[in-house]
Amino acid sequence: MSRKTPSTLLRILAVSGVLLLAACDKIPGMGPDPRVAQREEEAKAIGGACRYALRGLEDCYTLNPKAAKASVYAGWKDMDAYMRENKLEGTPSVLGKAEKPERAEKSTEIETETREPASGRNRS
After folding, report:
1. In total, how many domains does the chain have?
2. Which residues contact 21 (CB under 8 A, 6 or more apart)?
3. Which pLDDT belongs to residue 16?
């Protein structure tokens, strides 16, 4: 009877391991980075939120420059289809539309009188 040496046994194990891993779709530790998937999902959520806020894609891209444009578009498009299917109306965004409080005319007059003109200042 022939005896197999330990090195032959190791070679057989290595070859069988390679063959087993070749059949796998996912090799442990070699999958996609979960942070990439998370950023992609966040960009989709941004796109959906922009559509719901009645913003155009260009505005959405401008307000979120770090988000992937393809994912933002996919989220915007998905939300558009969902809103049309369920006959939903969006909610207008209030970003940049904050109303300024009205000033009384008297307080404006007082402020202008108490200010010192710039030309009258001493520059030493």
Report:
1. 1
2. 27
3. 79
